[in-house]
Specification:
0% strand, 1 helix, 93% helix, rod-shaped
């Protein structure tokens, strides 16, 4: 149960991190 919860959070965080990175990269460029 705990592992599943962590996995879901990690997946969400990964997607958010990607979007944040892309936005930052575009801003820098």
């Amino acid at each position: 149960m705990r592992n599943e919860r962590i996995t879901g959070g990690n997946r969400r965080l990964a997607q958010w991190r990607v979007t944040w990175l892309i936005e930052h990269s575009t801003s820098h460029q």
